[in-house]
Amino acid sequence: MTTMSSREFNRDVSAAKRAAKDGPVTITDHGRRSHVLLTAEDYDALVDSDELMGDRLVIEGDDVELELPPRSGSSLRIPTL
């Protein structure tokens, strides 16, 4: 992923647009990420996806069963100040 400062971006927007053709361009402000530049095609692929992120995490096959012990209030205590 290409990274450029906001100053570099302002000086050469065309270079940022060219770099975005190869992947997202991170733009930093005072050394911190502030924006990400994508091509319209990449953006549309993210937004128009019918698949939700949670659906991507689903494992095909049997459901997983998880048994949790009952919660008890006995482990709770009032803090001393």
Would you give an account of this structure?
InterPro entries: Antitoxin_Phd/YefM, YefM-like_sf. Antitoxin component of a type II toxin-antitoxin (TA) system. It comes from Brevibacterium casei S18. The structure is a single chain. The protein is of the alpha+beta class and 81 residues long. It has a domain of 50 residues: YefM-like domain (YefM-like fold, 3-Layer(aba) Sandwich). Helices cover 32% and strands 19% of the residues. It has four helices and three strands; from the N terminus they run βααββαα. Strands 1-2-3 form a three-stranded mixed beta sheet. 1% of the residues are buried. The mean pLDDT is 85.
**Which residues sit in consecutive blocks of at least 5 with pLDDT less than 50?**
none
Strand composition percent: 15-25%
State the helical fraction: 25-40%
Number of strands: 3
Q: Which oligomeric form is depicted? A: single chain
Order of helices and strands: EHHEEHH
Measure the end-to-end span: 49 Å
CATH superfamily of the domain at 1-50: YefM-like domain
Classification by helices and strands: alpha+beta
Query: So, CATH architecture of the domain at 1-50?
Result: 3-Layer(aba) Sandwich
Main sheet makeup: 3 strands, mixed
CATH topology title of the domain at 1-50: YefM-like fold
Average pLDDT reading: 85
CATH class of the domain at 1-50: Alpha Beta
| Structural shape | flat
Strand order of the largest sheet: 1-2-3
User: Mind telling me the C-alpha Rg?
Assistant: 23 Å
